[in-house]
Inverse folding.
């Protein structure tokens, strides 16, 4: 039986709370961006300093590294120390494997060294977290939320053509940014009502400079494709976009600048976050 038209057109009545409404669950969607991922640390610092709640995190590539470490309990201050002086050769080696310019074999021990005595598996994380990767054989987007954390971060950040892919269970995984560089939908699947997305690929120049070698060229071309394909930024409740488009994707030497840019971009949205999340303003 077809309901009357007046029934079909009824709108949901306005909800008014008598008492304190339950807080929205806040999720972070941390995007990829190679060395620019350092900016995520500045964002995390500002969110913590302003008591913005974080209930779950989804991360792609560099975003998975920052998000995974944070979910394990590594503080932003500790991450600052880690990235200062960081070299690509700490996480990769020049063995010229068949499936990449660099062997990403050092990534897993590097992550676990950074974790120290903190949890090394998803079971022990203090926050729900998912690392987003792409199955290079099936074309599926793969959200990893169990098992060994370092393996998930390694898979999510294996930029195809640059780093060797990760064999994970029955899959061959590469950087999740190939399919979804800003995983807002994954954060929602983790239970977020309100998603703050951190986008490291602002409009305009992608690589920050003219490529000078095959690695620069490959990375820049890949991230151009990532930015042009599937961008979930418009579906987030708030997007934080640090002004870092002028910094090369592989330049780890500008950590201080990236940290400052992340902080500035996060500070700019704090008033709106407080308003939309019904958080009391601090004196």
């Amino acid at each position: 039986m077809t309901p009357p038209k007046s029934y079909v057109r009824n709108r949901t009545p306005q909800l008014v709370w008598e008492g304190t409404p339950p807080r929205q669950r806040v999720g972070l969607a941390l995007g990829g961006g190679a060395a620019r991922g350092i900016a995520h640390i500045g964002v995390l610092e500002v969110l913590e300093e302003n008591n913005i709640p974080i209930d779950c995190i989804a991360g792609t590539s560099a975003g998975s590294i920052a998000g995974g470490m944070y979910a394990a309990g590594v503080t932003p201050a500790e991450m600052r120390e880690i990235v200062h002086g960081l070299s690509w050769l700490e996480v990769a080696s020049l063995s010229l494997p068949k499936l990449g310019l660099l062997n990403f074999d050092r990534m897993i021990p590097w992550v676990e060294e950074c974790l120290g005595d903190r949890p090394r598996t998803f079971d022990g994380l203090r926050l729900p977290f998912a690392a987003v990767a792409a199955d290079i054989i099936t074309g599926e987007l793969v959200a990893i939320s169990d098992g060994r954390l370092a393996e998930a971060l390694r898979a999510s950040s294996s930029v195809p053509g640059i780093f060797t892919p990760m064999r994970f269970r029955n899959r061959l995984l590469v950087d999740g940014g190939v399919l979804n560089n800003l995983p807002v939908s994954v954060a929602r699947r983790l239970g977020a009502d309100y998603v703050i997305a951190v986008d490291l690929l602002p409009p305009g120049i992608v690589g920050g400079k003219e490529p000078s070698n095959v690695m620069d060229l490959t990375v820049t071309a890949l991230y151009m494709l990532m930015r042009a394909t599937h961008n979930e930024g418009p579906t987030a409740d708030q997007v934080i976009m640090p002004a870092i488009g002028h910094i090369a994707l592989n330049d780890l030497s500008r950590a201080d600048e990236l940290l400052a840019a992340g902080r500035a971009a996060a500070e700019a949205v704090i008033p709106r976050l407080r308003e939309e999340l019904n958080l009391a303003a601090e004196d």
